[in-house]
Amino acid sequence: KIRDIMEAFMKLNQKGLLIVLSGPSGVGKATVRKALFKSPDHKFTYSVSMTTRKPREGEVEGQDYYFVSEEEFLKRIKEGRFLEYAKFVGNYYGTPIEQVQKMIEQGDEVVLEIEVEGAMQVKAKMPDAVLVFIAPPTYGALKTRLLGRGTETEEIIMERISKAHRELTLAAGYDYIVINDDVDNAADRIKAIIRAEHAKCRRSLNGYLQLLEETKDE
Ligand code: ADP
Ligand code: 5GP
Question: Contact 58/89 with Cβ under 8 angstroms?
């Protein structure tokens, strides 16, 4: 029994974290994630999602999203090729499962940037995932950011804002809340969360016991 527990610890210890960043549209998830990825302390991998939304000006296939038709997306749902997926303001979005598993095994910190419904699916399927909710400092700041980005029509912005209201009430289902007042502050808080998660007993005990074993005669 103890050996089983130790083996489980060992497996957890070698893996990277699965980090889910979510929060309302326009709160600054992509901006904070890009600031976070500049940190040299971790090997981050961004999980590129698949969507039926049309590319925005400047978005790159395979880097921002994999852009596919609705027919292709529905086929992939049937084939079970998503870790999670959801429909958001008229379009499908989903996380392709293969790349995520591979990167975690390699020891990368894998970051998913997804909306709340998808985040809850990840929580149910992967209990070791770390769920971080990015919240705006005020409701007004959220509207200003979404309008300021200027990538959607007014109608879509209004839909996204009304959806944000519901999303903000779902923050309680997450492990952490990070307020995006300032981008660098928010990225720093996420780094602190990552360090704390790696130090958790269930992830780090095996490494510690090994160290004790190796140094027992010193
Ligand atoms: P999301 O990925 O959550 O939809 P974005 O990262 O695209 O949001 O950010 C939406 C807009 O808000 C962008 O124009 C971005 O420059 C701006 N923004 C992000 N974080 C902050 C912040 N802390 N303070 C002010 N503006 C911000
Ligand atoms: P946008 O159209 O602004 O790029 O994304 C709209 C919303 O869909 C955002 O909240 C974004 O985080 C979310 N999203 C992006 N990719 C995925 C995904 O793979 N799964 C889910 N569930 N949501 C996603």
Answer: no
- Nearest CA owner, ligand 2 atom 23: 114
Report which residue type is found at 129.
Answer: A
Distance 51 CA to ligand 2 centre (A): 8
Instruction: Indicate whether residue 93 lines ligand 2 (CB < 6 A).
Output: yes
Q: Which residues contact 179 (CB under 8 A, 6 or more apart)?
A: 135, 136, 137, 186
For ligand 2, say whether the CB of 46 is within 6 Å of any of its atoms: no
210/198 Cα distance (integer angstroms): 16
Q: 65 C-alpha to center of ligand 2: Å?
A: 10
Q: Tell me how far the alpha carbon of residue 218 lies from the centroid of ligand 1, in angstroms.
A: 53
User: Quick check: 16 and 108 in contact, CB under 8 A?
Assistant: yes
Question: Structure pTM?
Answer: 0.87
**Cα separation, 136 vs 128, whole angstroms:** 26
- In a 3-state reduction of DSSP, which class is residue 112? strand
pLDDT in tens, the chain (218 residues): 666 666 665 555 568 899 999 988 889 999 999 999 999 988 999 999 999 999 999 999 999 999 999 999 999 999 999 999 999 989 999 999 988 988 988 889 999 999 989 999 999 999 899 999 999 998 888 888 888 888 888 888 888 888 877 787 888 889 999 999 999 999 999 999 999 998 888 777 777 777 777 777 77
Query: From the CB of 49, is ligand 2 less than 6 Å away?
Result: yes
